[in-house]
């Protein structure tokens, strides 16, 4: 990829290696929304940007200083996904999944926002998760202006911890509300330290984050993959379980240190194409509902 910046927009060549739709609609994030021009606008790390593909270029409209300090790493622009895609394409199913999700990039998200977002995601649909998070940011985030519009940062642990149970319930957070407060409190008190978790191996980091009430293995693996960039974490929900049932040869161990990236292709393909369970097989999604501690 070649990067240039002009008139408030970073322009990146090889736009075919970045699909805004596949990146923002694959279930890994909840604050990027489509606009009328085919682009997406969102907020990360307290900054706002608009992303679109036009004339063969990926265009990121943002503050000039933010491209190098935030967006280049956030969008994982320096990783060669063509190499990964060839590694993942080991049979007919994986080739179809990779082709379907071509241009997807795994975002390097802020750990606290990722943790809270995926606690909200339990037994929830994407539209409702987006609504809850938008309301949370408007309630407790910091307002700022960018690109002629008003945005809100994701609230800090201190801000969320100061919210009352009633305020969190007003977001329609349901049974997840106390889990969110306890996660914020753990970060504030230092019992959960993201830098320390990042330094651990994936299995140990998973055990630590699962000490939080309401954080089971699926939420933990989403947090590890999207928030700590532990790319061997392999979240498994009902769609991935259908993949396993239909294609027994698909196992995390086959994709090594980047199994989590491969998983996202498989999940996205299965969900968007409504992959069915093998005939006669019932596959349920436990979705970690109302569990204080999951193992």
Task: Walk me through what this model shows.
The protein has 295 residues and is an alpha+beta fold. Helices cover 44% and strands 13% of the residues. The chain has a six-stranded antiparallel beta sheet with strand order 1-2-6-5-4-3. A hairpin with a 2-residue loop joins strand 4 (40-44) and strand 5 (47-54).
CATH topology of the domain at 111-227: Endonuclease III, domain 1
Shape annotation? globular
Given the structure, what is the number of helices? 14
| Beta-strand percentage range | 5-15%
Helix percent reads 40-55%
The CA-CA distance between the termini, in Å, is: 42 Å
Radius of gyration: 19 Å
What is the number of beta strands? 8
CATH class group of the domain at 111-227: Mainly Alpha
Q: Any idea what the CATH architecture of the domain at 111-227 is?
A: Orthogonal Bundle
What name goes with the CATH superfamily of the domain at 111-227?
Hypothetical protein, domain 2
The mean pLDDT is 93
SSE pattern, N- to C-terminal: EEHEEEEHHHHHEEHHHHHHHH
Strand-pairing-aware structural class: alpha+beta
